[in-house]
Amino acid sequence: MAIATGEAGIHGACAPEFARVREVFADNFARGTETGAAFALYIGDEPVVDLWGGLADHRAQTPWEHDTPCLAFSCTKALTAAAALRAAERGGHDLGAPVASWWPEFAVRGKERVTGEQLLAHQAGLPAFDRGVSVAEAADPAAMADRLAGQAPEWAPGTAHGYHALTYGWLAGEIVRRLDGRTVGRYVAEEIAGPLGLDLWVGAPDGVLDRTARLTTGRTGRTDRAPAANRTGTDGGTAPPAASGARPADGPPADGPRARLARDAADPLSMFSRAFANPDVAAVPGRYNNREVLRAGWPASGVITTAPALAGFYRDLAAGRIVSPDTLRDALRPRATGPDRVLHLDSSFGLGFMRPSLTFAVPRAARQGAFGHTGAGGSIGLADIDHGIALAYVMNRTGTELSGGLRAMRLIKAAYDCLR
Description:
Layout: E1 2-3, E2 11-14, H1 19-30, E3 36-43, E4 46-57, E5 62-63, E6 70-71, H2 76-91, H3 116-120, H4 141-149, H5 167-180, H6 184-196, E7 200-202, H7 206-209, H8 257-266, H9 271-276, H10 291-296, E8 303-305, H11 307-318, H12 325-331, E9 336-339, E10 346-349, E11 370-374, E12 380-384, E13 389-395, H13 406-419
Antiparallel strand pairs: 1-2, 2-4, 3-4, 3-13, 4-5, 6-8, 7-8, 9-10, 11-12, 12-13
Helix pairs in contact: 1-13, 2-5, 2-6, 4-5
């Protein structure tokens, strides 16, 4: 690969035929929409793009390095799903069977027939806790699972789907805990990240947190040249939900799904707000920069990763190194498609993985083979089994869009344009 240097302090390597990706990555900084970010792309096992730039910490003026990890929010869900699929495959368990066959406490209040597949496909009707959960309580996956097991569903399980923004991790994670005995964080470390040499953690140790990028929600200007006074922002603010590049305030028509989403986002009692704001990270100092939150490794939203590691996860998943090709092929078959009871927009899910839809926007060429997961504020991990690629984008300035926003979309489009 050719070394990329120059504009906006961009570093790394990029194959000549993917020069357009480097240009778009640099342009995101030139537009003033980035603080620090990284993008990685594999074709098969070959790395063809590995770029980084900007600041990992705008307060300390710490530069983003090749090994700078960053919180990638709901990109975690794909790891948790892969762990559940692997644990079931290794143990010979049928995820199409009722959850009660391995989690007896779950079979109450109309959930007796809920299957493991429905947990993974956001169909269980448990998108939010029915009472407040503290950040400290959320560090105990067994306690979180127990709470959800005792709840009544918001809809008849299997009849609809809705994005389980935070509860997903403790529901899908219980598949791992019950079938294998390990937490998602430990399973990912011992079965996926460690053996495959991936710098990603669902619950990071202090040594990793010491070099983790600091999140900001503010507009910081050009991070390579702007005066220090312009490089400030609101730290660790609660990031927007993981959905699509459209802003919920885009509005008309007044009765359309985006308008309903905007109204729900402003209503603290709506299913949308309850799904995204409990546990309430805004109640702790530093919010998503808080070490208690990051150390806990919430299995729906807590992965800390580099871009090459997240892309490497998808590379290895597509190559059959995490689950068998048959298991992955079945997991990619859409189980829930259409209007989302939480997001209102159309979404599409296989067993834990997003498929192309309004909430997982991809270029036209990717609409058949792409799968992956977005993360709140803009991060994304994606693989395409038709084109044989895997990519990831992580950044520390959480955008105002719902995730999978314009910065990520421009990079992904550039990558597919280069493939042609």
